[in-house]
Amino acid sequence: MATATLTKPAAKGGSFLLESPQPGDVFTPADLSDDQRLIGQTAEEFVLKEVFPLIKDLENKKAGLMASLVKKGGEVGLMGGGVPEEYGGAGLDKISTTVLTEKLSIYGGFAVTHGAHAGIGTLPIVYFGTEEQKKKYLPKLATGEWIGAYCLSEPQAGSDAQNSLTRAELNAEGTHYILNGQKMWITNGGFADVYIVFGKVDGEKFTAFIVERSFPGFKPGNEEHKMGIHGSSTTPIFLENCKVPKENLLHEIGRGHIVAFNILNAGRFTLGASCVGGSKHVLMTSSKYCKERKAFHKQIGEFGMMKEKLAEMAIQIFAVESMVYRSAGNIEAAMAAASGSGDKIQNTMKVLEEYAIESSIAKVYGSEMLDFVVDEGVQIFGGYGFHEEYPVCRAYRDSRINRIFEGTNEINRMLIIQMLMKRAMGGQLPLIPAAMKLADEILAGPSFEETPEGVLADEARVVANAKKMFLQAAGGAVQKFREKLADEQELIGALSNMVMEIYAMESCLLRAQKAAAAKGEAATQTMIDAARVFINDAAERVEHEAKRAVAAAHEGDMLTTQMAVLKRFGKRAPVDTIALRRRVAAAVQSQDRYPLEAR
């Protein structure tokens, strides 16, 4: 699969906080190859032609319907993207699977089903399976003949995944593990054939197993009555002396956390891409409705507040899309660089771990963006938005789970800082020297700054200063709380929000600069406008979080001094975001869709 190459090796995970990449260093949707665009087109057509006409039946859980659609999707190659070609899959690169995920995610019920099957239900075998396990399971999973599921959550464990009560004991003959326990919230639980199940061998060693539906003692429970994603199947799973052949142990005894966490990293990133696809569809639906609905003798789309909503929806989608494809480009480049040496699976694990921070960012920022977009969609539809006959009502309900899936957003916010600190302490990320250098710069006082030049030059300076704010706030927090920082969850939340905003701001900036360099400013004006609005507003959010963090780490005269420094870093030229948003809204309304897609 041909992919557009980046101008230098992939950036290290988390390094965006310390480096100043050039526009050519990042992958953007404009860099997609023709093959990758075709994959996206095939996926989108499948959902619109095969899935959309059946939504009502899917929402009512018509028996066998969703499973038949998974099989149908498998026949046209949509289910085996992550499975290598030698096992009957498409063997797609990371960028292609990102496009595939985005385009399949127009309808929440199908998006969730696909993700649970082709992602977290299949990838554990791809990454950790033995040769025999891969040969047995992957060809059937790739074609959708068998459907996969992932069983980690338990009734009492919630976010604390390793606190598993499911037990696995080797039988006296040494032929089977006997599993006992219960799993909760299992997507595809009602109709899957192959389940990745986690339990503790001898009640101690957290371990993964491949469990078939037909194994004695395995029983799915009844469908859960959920707020949203009604089209998907969600059931508990009961294991009562379930006999699992010992050759179905996945990876190694006691190494289940390695399987779980690496797969969750992959799943978190995928979820961010999924949110992009769902939000684009809601924006399109909302823009069309703004022309159909009239009030006070006008189309409601002619009113300023409606324009503002459409513009902000597009701008936030632009930010997440820019982050997701930038990360996909880095992950793909890192995987390609590692492919020539050593163990392929180990290399894949290292790359997934390398970009765990960016994966959590995609998940948190993407799910919160989608929640914003569907909420505004309901508002645009007014009373009709609250009615089940209109699709935005369903989209609103379907969206809410994304902030809980794949580790709650609170857990992921904690993880972002935890992973950054771990990398800093391990010497992989020179955060501490950078913070010390910044402290010296602060003591030296204001320096003469060169006048920025080029497209979005002012915004580039704002992004650079946002990074300084983070280093200032994080440095103070680490200095005060040291190893007890993990207990200061509100402070970690503030720092994490800054990290996410910085990645979003810079991704918008670099994408717009890269587009302007390729096509000229006139042809990319909407993208430049969107980037200016986003960076202006995100800078205010960064400053707000920085003030919270600094106030938690300092007091007295030191606090006054630190706040003065923050004010200096926060200095920026005022931007007329009302006028810019009107221009972005005009671009949305002229096409009745997300206007920043490279076509």
Radius of gyration: 24 Å
Task: Name the average pLDDT.
Answer: 94
Total domains: 4
Question: What is the name of the CATH topology of the largest domain?
Answer: Butyryl-CoA Dehydrogenase, subunit A, domain 3
Into which percentage range does the β-strand content fall?
5-15%
Helix count from the secondary structure assignment: 19
Classification by helices and strands:
alpha+beta
Helix and strand string, N-terminal first?
Answer: HHHHHHHEEEEEEEEHEEHHHHHHHHHHH
Share of helix, binned: 55-70%
**CATH superfamily annotation of the largest domain:** Butyryl-CoA Dehydrogenase, subunit A, domain 3
The end-to-end distance, rounded to whole angstroms, is 19 Å
Layout of strands and helices, then pairs:
Blueprint: H1 34-51, H2 55-59, H3 65-75, H4 94-104, H5 108-120, H6 123-128, H7 131-143, E1 148-151, E2 167-170, E3 176-187, E4 194-201, E5 205-212, E6 218-220, E7 234-245, E8 249-250, H8 256-292, E9 294-295, E10 298-299, H9 304-338, H10 344-354, H11 356-381, H12 391-399, H13 409-425, H14 431-444, H15 457-481, H16 489-519, H17 525-553, H18 556-569, H19 577-591
Parallel strand pairs: 1-4, 2-4
Antiparallel strand pairs: 2-3, 3-7, 4-5, 5-8, 6-7, 9-10
Helix pairs in contact: 1-4, 4-8, 5-8, 8-9, 8-11, 8-12, 9-10, 9-11, 9-16, 9-17, 9-19, 11-12, 11-13, 13-16, 14-15, 15-16, 15-17, 16-17, 17-18, 17-19
